[in-house]
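Late entry, written up from scratch paper. The run itself happened at the end of the previous shift, but nothing got recorded in the book at the time, so transcribing now.
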Amino acid sequence: MRFDGLRPRRPAQTREVISRLLAWADAAQRRHSLLGFPYAVVKKYSDDDGGRQAALITYYSFLSIFPLLLLAVSVLSKVLVDHPSLRAQLIDALVPPELQPTIDHAVTTMPSSGLPFILGLIGLLSAGTGVVFSAYETLNHLAGVPKRSRFGFVARYARVLLMLLVVLVGGVAAATLTVASGALPNVNGLQQLAAAAGTAVVVFVVLALAAKVLIARPVSLRTSWPAAAIGAVTVAAVLAIGTRLLAVLVSQSGAVYGSFATVVGSFTLLYVVSEVLLYSAEGAVVRHARLWPRALDISRPTPADVQVLTRLATEQERLPTERIEVRMEAGSRPGDDPSGSADASRETERR
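Output as recorded:
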């Protein structure tokens, strides 16, 4: 068959061209970290099922946000009972406008004092632990901490509750800085810029503490600060811009779809934040453990590929005496000829 006098390319020739392009791209990203590092981050995100982890964090964040906001507003209402103006300003800065009517109604129906009030606060605190537990599992998974080395039941709950208190204090601190920025002259958006900068600083501290508190191995600030900085800027941007977009979306949805638009918009913003935080954490892990370059051609795995595969396998060690060994098949060692075996790893368990 001919097309304009040209013979169509044979399948074997097409495969050869694709193979050459793949080999060229693989060699280029192995030589240049500017290409190899981003690919290694994306590759590790895929190895760790990052989309699933982000979806879980988004789901639990959505379920936890209302109890945590209600808990914070309840405490502020008690502590600042003699300062109604400051209390109203802090609540306006802390609670998104779309949720304020619901939060106000819930606060008015809660017990106002005594043991019922304390039990209600404990219940809200417990309901808000879902997102922290999800973050705990995700961070230890990304760091490759074996299950046998993770915190026990009591230590895990204690650290989750501690982290939850850090989140609550951070939220109130960010709201306080937002209110304080209102005292600045509103010139060229100075108030908004100061509020966003204050929020970013608070979020940076919270994220850095999350790595220290939740990961079951020592984590230095030198390792965690890049991920915390990127996450802080992202969260500040979402709070400054995303909430305004959410308000516009809800206002244009009408009475029938307004509530649905609030849910969808909230899920979208939370998912964007979760994705950015995950990619930032993956970048910190890849940078700290030097998990690059990764192979585009899976028949020629790099030492970083072997290390990542080993971490994924040994993470499943559950018993104190259990060890999982990973070895490469003949012909699949790093740098071997691409015609070798493509089997990446083989796990053997020794109990």
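The chain is about 70% helix and 5% strand.
(Scratch paper discarded after transcription.)
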